[in-house]
Every structure is written in structure tokens, then in C-alpha cells.
Description:
The chain is α+β, with helices and mostly antiparallel strands. It has helices at about 5-25, 30, 35-55, 60-75, 80-85, 90-105, 115-145, 150-155, 160-175, 180-195, 205-230, 240-245, 260-270, 270-285, 310-325, 340-345, 370-385; strands at about 250-260, 295-300, 300-305, 330-335, 350-355, 360-365, 395. It is built from 17 helices and seven strands. The strands form two sheets. It has a five-stranded mixed β-sheet with strand order 2-3-1-6-7.
Amino acid sequence: MLKLKGVKSTFLSLGAVFGIFALLIHFQSQWQDKLTIVNYLVYPLLAVTTLFATQFNRSRVAILCILWLLYLLSINNTVSWSNWLEANSEWLILCGANLFLLLAIIKDRALFSIHGISRVIFILACGAATYTWLNVSQDIEGVLPETSFWQKIQPYIAVIVPLCVIGSVLLWRSLSRNSLTLTALLITFLVWSFSQLDMLTLPWSLIVLVMSSVYLFAVSTDSYYLAYRDDLTSLPTRRALNQLALSLGRKYTVAMLDIDHFKKFNDTYGHDIGDQVLKLVAAKMKSVRGGGKIYRYGGEEFTVVFPRKTAAQAIPELDTLRANIANYDMVIRNPKRADKSARKAKKSNDYKTVNVTVSIGVAQRQPKQKFEHALKNADLALYRAKKKGRNNVSE
Length: 395
Ligand SMILES: Nc1nc2c(ncn2[C@@H]2O[C@H](COP(=O)(O)OP(=O)(O)OP(=O)(O)O)[C@@H](O)[C@H]2O)c(=O)[nH]1
């Protein structure tokens, strides 16, 4: 299934990178004489990106950088296989595309381990499979019907048709996964194919320089998300909340939200269903109005911060949120079929509907008060909300 975030980030990234290439082509005269600097810069940048990617366990990006490095060395005739590559351009373009597809399918695993060896074997197998395909495609071309339709298609069977298939798979994976690494692979594939087919005419060192920057951006953004986003709910974590606290002004309101009787819920339905409920509550919380910023504080506790808002302004928004959650019939999949979408599960009667309520404690920051103190007051207010019988907002 397509993910809205995946669609957005894929098209934004594609637009940004191809926009940069368009600008580079447009202003060619301005940088032509500085190409030697680019030629020197690209190698250290590739090395830094490889180290950075390895450090953050993004082995696929590290492999990409190593492949680019080998390619640059081969086109500069510094390695022994340069001439062979030049004579086998069809193999080169298709093998490159197959490698990007392979990297989109395998997982990020530590490079310096048994997985590193398996990656090398996969890459060699990719090269061999490409070679076999090019031979087989010649046989296919030989047995095609003599009709004009097949004769028109014939020149494209060996390279263009596989490129279109690979491009479609990469596009689909990027749109449906919301992963910057997959988007970077899609961009790499497009840049590689367009350049090899002479549709993008820029020096390779410049292309690789731009691509290395794209990888650095992808790895650092992914790492930021890893550190500041909660894995289960995708909400920012307590670490991100502490970061926000540093930039808050004098006036703000903090709310602590806790799911009622969640231990009993877990005991009744199991931890997996508890996890699904946490996700659904988090998704519902994202709809809070009034500029509320949502964080997963920990466990089944969430924090909402309303910058520049008084408690009186925040409470109606929080009460609407509380009511929305209480009235929300949550469709829960059977955890054994967690791979199925809720809609499919609904069709097959393999679902149940559950409801939860939440209690919310609110505190407005008092003059000269630190963020931790305001948070503590919100926690005390939450305690009062629980005492009052839960499913309410207390100040
Ligand atoms: N499924 C799941 N459960 C969690 C997670 N984090 C915390 N919990 C559970 O949340 C429950 C919290 O229970 P308590 O703090 O005793 O409170 P409660 O049952 O919600 O009761 P009240 O807060 O008094 O209404 C515990 O059973 C935790 O195991 C999580 O990530 N997933």
C-alpha cells in the first residue's frame, strides 16, 4: 500500500535532486573551470560518507559509495578492468541498475561481519545474472514473431525493458516505505540510467559529488529520526521533548496524557494488541488542534505542549481529543495476521473493535518556572484526573 509520507518524501527528493541537476546544467559556464576541484573533492566526500554510513549501520549506503568509487576509478582508467567495462556498456548499465535493485531489497547489516561476505556474493551473483540475461535476451530476440509490433520492441528487450521494470519496482518501494535510503536508491537508479543513456550530460565526478551529498543527507536524517522518533508510534520521543523545552518562550501549557487501565487492557488482550492501541491513540493524538505538539513520554504516557497558549486555551482542545479517543472504535487485527491491513482483516472477520479512554493533566507554565517544573505540575494534575474517575481533563 502507498504511504502518504513515502509519496511526499519521494517526490520532494526527486524534485530537489533533479532541480539541482537542472541548475548545474543551466549554469555550466560558471563551474566548468572548477571541475578539477570537484575531481579532488569527490573522493574524500565518498570516503566520509562511507565512514558515516558504516558508523550509523547504513551498510547499503556504504556499499553504494564503494560502488561509485570503483566506477570513478574505472572511468579514469586507473583500474585493470576499465577497458572491459568500456567494451561491455550494456552489461555495465544493467548490472548497475540490478545492484540498486538488490540494495533496495536486502537489509542494512553490519558490513564487517558474515553479512558483509554475503553482500559481496550477492553483488557477484548480480553481475553474473546480468551477463546471463544479456545472452538469453539475444535468444529471445531471435525467436520473436515477425510482426511489426515485436520488431519495434526488439531493440529494447535487452536493456530498456529491464530498466523500466527495475525502475517501477524501485519507485513502488520508495512510495510505499517512507525510507530515505530507498528514495536515495531510486534517485541513484534514475541518475545512473539517464547518464548512461546520455539523457543527463554532466561529468561523472560532479554527479557522484551530488549523490554523495544526497546519501549524507539521507543517513543523517534517518539517524535523527532513529534518535528522536519513537519506533512504535512514530511520535517524537522524550529526547525531542527536552530539545523543544530549550526553545519554548515564557508562555506555554503542558499536558500529560495517560491511557486508563492499560495494564488491565494488556492483561486482557495481550501485549501485541496493546501495542496496536498505542499506535492508534498516537495517530488520533496527531489530530489535536490549537498548535499542540505531541510526544511519547514513555510507556502509555504522552505529552502535549501548547507553545504560546494558556491552560484556558488548551483545555477545550484537550477535551475534544479526550472525547475523540473515548468515542473511537479501534479496529484491531489479530496479531497472528499482523501483516494484513485492517481493512483486509475486517473483510475476513479477523478483527475486533476495542475502546479505551484517557486521562489528561494540564499545567500552564508559571513565571520563572522551569520546563521540568511545569511538566511535574501536569503530572500532578494527571494524578488528580485519575482520582476523579479517569476519562477527564484536570488542571
Ligand atoms: N503493549 C504495551 N504496553 C505497554 C507499553 N509501555 C507500557 N505498557 C504497559 O502499560 C501498563 C501501565 O500500567 P500502569 O502504569 O499500572 O497503569 P494503568 O493500568 O494504565 O492504570 P491507570 O494509569 O491507573 O489507569 C503496564 O502494564 C505496561 O506494561 C508498550 O509499549 N506496549
